[in-house]
Design goal:
Layout lengths: L1 H16 E21 L2 E10 L6 E11 L2 E10 L15 E8 L2 E9 L1 H9 L20 E12 L2 E8 L17 E10 L2 E11 L9 E13 L2 E12 L7 E13 L4 E12 L7 E10 L4 E11 L6 E2 L2 E2 L8 E11 L1
Antiparallel strand pairs: 1-2, 1-3, 1-19, 3-4, 4-5, 5-6, 6-7, 7-8, 8-9, 9-10, 10-11, 11-12, 12-13, 13-14, 14-15, 15-16, 16-19, 17-18
């Protein structure tokens, strides 16, 4: 009985000092696209689509109070396709890290989002919706890095963040070759009341010894301001890189947009994303409008309508590069339901 009492008391103390939360999002809808690549050239597609406004996911997030304002934290998060229940080859493809948090800030180790991601998501009128938001014009904006050490600290709405990865894609960490697959970056963003602004830098290198000196560098800046129920957004991303192409590639990405909280339940959004490919006329553009209606605090219905304009062989579709026939325009409509738990 005494042992049982001690164990019960210990369990009570542990319960009071630590917590683990199961959370997730289930998002699915029906999508219609024109000029999708097909075996015989192009065609329209009408399909079920998972992860339209948010990637469907589940995760575990935990925190233990170590005393003196110091806590141990962890997060494990996995994405999945709701239409067929499939996952990627990684169990926790979205995040897997552990670390410490306290008055000094937060220090974490593992697979985690880059400072570029953390800043860009604040500046996108579509909130990084997979169909059809900002990162479809540059998927690295939604980047995650393996083997990463990350530090962040927030004071009165101002957040400073830095990350260093020994092997961004998991193929690095080659003995004697610290440049291989290296990734580092930092950000500064401010969010308080009607004002949000941010700036971020990201750089990564080739994934082999032969390409270790190839690098992609990105600089992102932007902001938003709320005028009553309307929040306006503007942003810019500069890119100079050679990792994917092997030779110097440059582009500028610009975007404008707004969100309007029409009623407590209904929100509307619109955005335009323009990519200026340097030394080329292949400059695609995406226009999107969105409506979202909250049935409850956890469940909403949405409708997105978008148009991708391509020219001179550009191939930016509403689901990313390569999802439309080269040089062709694309119209897309997706309607669905999202539940948060």
């Amino acid at each position: 009985m005494a042992v049982s009492a001690v164990l019960a008391a210990s369990a009570g103390v542990a319960s009071a000092q630590s917590s683990v939360t199961l959370y997730g999002i289930a998002d699915i809808g029906v999508e219609y696209l024109t000029n999708a690549p097909a075996a015989s050239g192009d065609g329209s597609v009408f399909r079920m689509s998972s992860g339209n406004m948010s990637t469907s996911r589940w995760g575990l997030r935990g925190k233990e109070d170590l005393g003196g304002g110091l806590s141990a934290i962890f997060e494990l998060e996995s994405g999945f396709s709701l239409d067929n229940g499939s996952t990627s080859s990684r169990l926790f493809d979205r995040s897997s890290f552990v670390g410490l948090s306290g008055g000094f800030g937060k220090l974490t180790l593992g697979r985690q989002t880059t400072p570029l991601y953390d800043t860009a998501i604040l500046l996108d009128p579509m909130g990084f919706a997979p169909h059809y938001g900002l990162y479809r014009s540059d998927d690295i904006l939604a980047g995650r890095a393996d083997n990463a050490i990350k530090y962040s600290h927030s004071v009165s709405g101002l957040t400073v963040s830095g990350l260093y990865s020994f092997g961004r894609t998991g193929t690095g960490e080659v003995a004697g070759q610290s440049k291989v697959d290296r990734n580092f970056g930092g950000s500064l963003h401010y969010a308080n009341g009607p004002v949000t602004f941010g700036v971020a830098y990201d750089e990564f290198q080739g994934t082999s010894i032969a390409t270790r000196d190839n690098k992609d560098r990105r600089l992102l800046a932007g902001g938003s301001y709320a005028f009553g129920p309307v929040r306006a957004f503007a942003g810019y991303r500069w890119l100079k890189g050679s990792v994917a192409t092997g030779s110097d590639f440059r582009s500028n990405l610009y975007w404008l947009g707004a969100r309007y909280q029409a009623t407590p339940a209904l929100s509307l959004a619109g955005a335009a994303y323009y990519t200026d490919t340097r030394n080329s006329k292949a400059d695609p553009m995406i226009f999107v409008v969105s409506s979202d209606y909250m049935l409850s605090k956890r469940t909403d219905l949405y409708l997105n309508v978008a148009y991708a304009r391509n020219k001179d062989g550009s191939q930016l579709g509403l689901n990313g590069y390569g999802s439309v026939v080269a040089g062709e325009n694309q119209t897309g409509v997706v309607a669905g339901i999202r539940h948060r738990f």
